[in-house]
Fold:
Amino acid sequence: MTQQQSPEQHGLGSGANTLAGAVERNGINPVPESERHGTPRSLFWPWAASGLSLLCLAYGSYLMGLGLSPWQAVAGGAVGYVLSFLLVGLVSVAGARTGAPTMAIGRVAFGRQGNRLPALFGYVSNVGWETVLVALSSLGGAAILARVAPGAFAGSDGGSPTTAAQALCFAVTAVSVVVVGVFGHALIMRVQKYLTSAIALMTVVYMVLMAPRVDLSDLGHGAPAGLGTFVGGVVFAMTLLGLGWVNCGADYSRYLPRTSSGRAITGWTTLGGVAAPVVLLIFGVLLTAGDPDLAAAAAADPVGALAAELPTWFLVPYLLTAIGGFASGAIMDIYSSGMSMLALGVPVRRHFAVLVDGVLMAVGGWYLLFVSPDFFATFQAFLSVIGVAMAAWTAVFLVEQWRRRHSGLDPAAVRTWGWPAVLALAVGTVVGLGLITSADPYLAHAVGFLLTDGAARGTPGAMNLGVVVALPVAGLLYALTARSAGRSAPSGHPATDRPATPEGAR
Structure:
């Protein structure tokens, strides 16, 4: 005999209050029409805040570290940013159409049980990113505190920050992120709007102060890399930005009215996501192009390195800008990771899921700060692997969205297993992992197995095409197999669907 459990037990809403001062009650259930409001233009603010981080200045040095010339880093980065965030925008359309978060909508293609695999990928991606952002906030904040108050926060050498300084910055950022994540969507949308304005102002001040170190002629310096390395830069830029957000797109558009323009949702999401990062990319490339030492330092501690030449009076505002920028991205990650946990079927309320993620974020941050021997290698390895999996998932999601463009996506009417989607995700991911390389010595043995030794060390290895290849492989395979499997089924409900049951029923 089955027992009906309350919606809140599975992170679901009950006619939730959507005020910014109230804890959001909606979980992975579709948001009721009575709670839908706003316009696609409102999506600009959260996505702008997510990318308005001083880390985006360091992305320029990251791309140049692949061997790209300054102008190639700018061009490749911009192309990768736009392409990847277009995917986020397209995924976001499904949020307005269904009122459900991204990973719950994924059940339409993958099935209730089959969706656990991509939900796990999405969860790991979000928790990984929030950990990276908060850890970087700690590194940069501690370096600045050591300059502001060396007696309290600098080590015996007088320059390096103490563990206590790192722990303090980590705690401040982590607690702020968790608190906002617990309150949920309404508070996030309001906080991100104010953070965007404040951080943008302080970032402009930073750029003005550092402008004397910038020389536009530096864009023409350096020997250009080959086509393979340039393509690798585009792929890396995609993993740095949009591919880290594709599994979150619908989480922030689900409160929009169902009739909202799909083009407007895609456009405002893309514009918000790439506008600030492209500007910061250009400035970051110019800042580090003529200074190899700065570029090397930025790879290990971007915030601290980029503050080295700042006047003392601006260090505290810079610290607040850095922490605010990292926090804005981590807030969105921790909210979406909670949604992914619920989509996995973990029977907790949404705000408790956020608290669990906060604990994992603390553990992961400790590893990055005090255990990992090479932050950049670990970071790049994480981006490559997750980027492949999320690219394959995105292809399946968008193909299904296209297939249901007339009948509509209904997260409540799903089959137990969507084998075509699971197969496409698995094949796309395996093929993609076989075509990437990694600087992490441990991960290097698990990827690149479709490349010869010569190819791995040459142009194919530099291109890291696995991320790009995973998209068409998974998308095409799913389009073919889903079409075959669904020929005998009505458009909206596959033949293997079971009758829709309330979320959480056993």
Notes: The chain has 21 helices and no strands. The radius of gyration is 22 Å. The chain has a mean pLDDT of 83.
